[in-house]
Structures are given as C-alpha cells and as structure tokens.
Design brief:
With 288 residues, the protein is α/β, with parallel strands linked by helices. β2 and β3 form a beta hairpin. The chain has nine helices and seven strands; from the N terminus they run ααααααβββαβααβββ.
Length: 288
C-alpha cells in the first residue's frame, strides 16, 4: 500500500516552511511532522474520519484531544496525531492491516491505538508479525501473531479507558480476559497499558507483581506480560515523553520460547524506555 511518496513528504515540508516562516528549529520540525502525519491519516482513513476525530469540528475530548483546553492537552494532541500517522505509514504493508483500518472506524480508539503502538514497536525491532482477524472464538481471538526465534507467539493487547482508576481486581480481570483469548497450545504474550491514574496510585506499584504472580499460578498459556506506561517530563526547558515498559515473565509457561524479554527493544542509555524525545521519532521523516 502506497500512502505518500518521499517527494510529496519533502514538498510538504517546504510548503509548511514557506507558510510559517516565523516558526523555526524544533518547533518547525514538529509542525512539519504534524502536517505530514495529518495528510497520511486523511489518505488512509479518509477526510471525514480525520475531521471528526482530529480537528475541532468533532466532539470535544476523546483520545486525540481534538479540542485541547490546556497546554498539556495540546502537546498530547500533536504527539498522538504524529504517532498515528507514523504508525499507519510504517505498518501499511503488514498482513491484516486493512482489518485494523476498519476497526479504527468502530472500536475504542484507545484500545486500537495501543494495539497499533505495540505492533509498531515489534515491527521496528525486526519482529515478523501479522494482525489476526477477529473471530469471536474463545482461545482464537487474539490480536497479533508474531514469529520469534523459530516459534509462533500469540499476542493479546489490552488498554482501559484513560479515566479508569486502578484496582487489583480490575488488573486481574484484564489479565484473565486476555488469557481466555489466547490458545492453550501455543506461546502467548499479553501487553497491558497502565493508565496515568494507575501510575499515580501507590497501590499499583506495590501490588502489580503480586497480581501477576497470582495470575501465573493459574495459567501456563501466557509466557509473559508487558506493562506499558507513558510519562511526560522536562529535559531542561523541553517537554519530553517517556514510553516505559516492564516485562514480567512466567517461570513455568506451557510452551517455552526463549528470550521473549527481547521482543521489545530497550533504550540503551535509559533502562526500560522505548523512546525519549520531544516527540517520537517517525519513520516517514526523510534523512535529508
């Protein structure tokens, strides 16, 4: 699937530079990436989808913060639109991608975006994968199938709404729901997004290992669980977004697959980070 050519990207960069001569440096680069990402979204999902979900014309609120009311929400809006454009561009030729485009029209955007985010990170780490078409059948209704060190691994991705508060029961129920969607005769991984309220809750930090250990005592079909979370902070005067994760392995999986802790690439200088940048690096950005 061809979405946008290198020549069109370079042309858009220069057009935006000419339209906004007062914007310079890193601010200009963010503006250019935002503009190119928006064009990718329009071409992939259609102008109506873009307008109702990513612009002020749509209903306020929602995952993309299309009517930001604070400076922080403005940063989140730009980051999430750029992330979406980058993900659509990078995964355009992955098998089953078309079904995920259909899903973006109907399912929870938070859940759909986290699934695409996980797939993008796996893809960038050189992991072979394809999206699995929803079946509605217990044990065969997972999200992604990946190939890792000669084995096939089934992946289920879970994300609650951002305003969901943490509780041990809620996390346990999420893990058990994911387990039921995975087959019992293949290796499985679960990816869970911890929401901002969870990270701020001291109970989450103190209970997460206990909840996972209890979960593993009742299942062998899940080889491990990745917990992801995002943190905004400052480096000097620049706002940055850290995308963190921690891997919790099952010591007694039913199907042994080695080195599953490496399917996600870590930032070498900052442990347990996927990336740290004012805005995430994007695959559609030409080197020159």
């Amino acid at each position: 699937m061809k979405i946008i050519s290198r020549e069109e990207i370079l042309q858009t960069r220069e057009e935006l530079r000419a339209v906004y001569p007062e914007v310079q440096g890193g601010h200009l680069e963010v503006l250019q990436k935002f503009g190119i990402a928006s064009e990718i979204v329009i071409r992939t999902l259609g102008p109506s989808w873009w307008q109702t979900r990513l612009t002020p014309v749509g209903q306020p609120g929602g995952y993309f913060r299309n009517q930001p009311s604070t400076e922080h929400e403005s940063y989140e809006h730009m980051d999430r639109v750029i992330e979406l454009g980058d993900t659509l561009y990078l995964l355009r030729n992955v098998r089953g991608f078309e079904h995920r485009l259909i899903g973006l029209q109907t399912v929870s955007l938070e859940g759909a975006m986290f699934e695409l985010f996980v797939a993008k990170l796996l893809y960038k780490n050189g992991v072979g994968l394809n999206f699995v078409e929803p079946s509605g059948m217990r044990g065969h209704d997972y999200d992604i199938l990946l190939e890792w060190e000669g084995s096939m691994v089934c992946v289920e991705v879970k994300s609650k709404d951002e305003d969901t508060s943490y509780s041990a029961n809620s996390l346990s129920n999420t893990l058990n729901e994911a387990r039921r969607q995975l087959p019992d005769n293949q290796a499985g991984l679960v990816f869970v997004r911890a929401q901002p309220k969870w990270i701020q809750d001291t109970d989450f930090a103190s209970e997460v290992e206990r909840v996972l250990n209890d979960f593993y005592r009742s299942t062998g079909r899940v080889n491990g669980v990745y917990i992801f979370w995002h943190e905004w902070f400052y480096i000097g005067k620049k706002r940055a977004l850290a995308k963190r994760f921690r891997y919790f392995p099952n010591d007694k999986p039913r199907t042994v697959v080695p080195n599953l802790q490496n399917v996600m690439k870590r930032n070498e200088s900052l442990p347990d980070l996927v990336s740290v940048d004012s805005f995430v690096p994007v695959s559609f950005w030409p080197d020159s």
